[in-house]
Write a structure and sequence with these properties.
single chain, 153 residues, alpha+beta, 28% helix
Length: 153
């Protein structure tokens, strides 16, 4: 493995539709998206429920290496994706070098995020959510929204 300029171990090219990791697996690395889109989703009763759609510059899979827990969701390449792989060791080294207050902040944010993910997972398994992506035409920034289906009266 060699450094690829982003402080990561190496890059991977993932074809569209390929599963990157599955919910419940132990995590040994995180991924930084260089190009393409990745969908995070949960599965219940053989039905997938999307949680978020991620794009270039976003990181995912970090929770499992921050707190040592299993993956809370699955990740699938929506398009061909180029990912920089961030090893547990590389991330831990950077966190260990951080100020103690920053380390505490990271730990607390990871804990709160995991708790929120569990609540959201419970909600999404009960209600089918839809992902809608919009782009601000002035800034070219994309936003991902989760919407609940509405009942017509």
């Amino acid at each position: 493995m060699k450094e690829n300029g982003t402080g990561t171990d190496f890059s991977r090219i993932i074809p569209a539709g390929e599963i990157i990791f599955k919910e419940g697996q132990q995590g040994d690395c995180a991924y930084l998206i260089e190009s393409g889109q990745v969908e995070l989703y949960v599965t219940s009763k053989d039905e997938s429920t999307p949680l978020s759609l991620l794009g270039p510059g976003e990181i995912f899979g970090e929770m499992a290496i921050l707190d040592g827990s299993r993956r809370e969701a699955s990740a699938r390449a929506n398009t061909e994706v180029v990912l920089s792989v961030v090893s547990k060791e590389a991330l831990s080294e950077r966190i260990d070098e951080a100020d103690p207050v920053v380390r505490l902040l990271i730990t607390m944010m990871a804990k709160r995020t995991r708790e929120t993910l569990r609540v959201n997972k419970s909600i999404t398994q009960k209600k089918k959510l839809k992902i809608k992506e919009t782009t601000n035409s002035n800034t070219a920034v994309s936003y991902t929204h989760l919407t609940l289906p509405t009942k017509r009266i």
